[in-house]
Amino acid sequence: MEIFKKSYQDINYCIRCGAVLTLKKDPENKMRPHCNNCGWTYYKNPIPASACVIINNKSEIVIIKRKFPPNPNEWALPSGYIEINQDPETTAIEEMKEETGLDGTVEESLGYYTDFSPIYEKVISFGFLMKVTGGKLQAGDDAAEARYVKLDNLPDIAFPSHRFFIEKVKEKISHEGHRQR
Ligand SMILES: [Zn+2]
To answer: Is 110 exposed, middle or buried (0-12, 13-18, 19+ CB in 10 A)?
Structure first.
């Protein structure tokens, strides 16, 4: 259970009542910060996020230059954290619109990738191949730039998860020959 102790070492106060938390075994015998005042137990889980691969018939994908941490000013896929009222697909569709101006739907799941996060310790990213249904490519409020770039000529991409989803799409294309879209 050492891993849990280490993971929770910076969790000191109850988010509900503000009392000091103490590490205590939960019913599954795992150490968790527990509030003796109000009964709240704190669980640290990977934070879920969605990322979009948008590709055109010239084998170009949409990348955005990030405006905000983590990794500001670096290139990445359009992506974002999943809100409490969303599922992975709706987040992908919303982030695509917000960051690139493009309307889209989910064409295919590209699986998931668990990654270290400097902010949240661990993020679990869900990748989606998206189909463009409308809109016009332009950087949204939380992207500094948005553009199509040839798959074989990409700049450095910020996150291992995004590189993983791009590789999956490259494999898919090489199996299909070329895409007709
Ligand atoms: Zn409390």
So the answer is: buried
Q: Do 82 and 20 have their domain in common?
A: no
90 and 25 in one domain? no
Please report the pLDDT score of residue 8 as a whole number: 84
Sequence-distant (≥ 6) Cβ neighbours of residue 71 within 8 angstroms: 158, 159
Q: Are residues 71 and 130 in the same domain?
A: yes
Residue pLDDT, tens place only, 67-119: 888 889 999 999 999 999 999 999 999 999 999 999 999 999 999 999 998 88
- Asked if residue 68 belongs to a domain, the reply is yes
Residue ranges making up the domain that contains 64: 47-176
Total domains in the chain come to 2
Ligand 1 centroid vs 21 CA: distance in angstroms?
Answer: 8
- Kindly give the distance from the C-alpha atom of residue 85 to the centroid of ligand 1, in angstroms, as a whole number: 25
Ligand 1 is an ion; residues with CB less than 5 A from it: 14, 16-17, 19, 35, 37-38, 40
Say which DSSP state 38 is in: T
> Measured in angstroms, how far is the CA atom of residue 43 from the centroid of ligand 1?
13
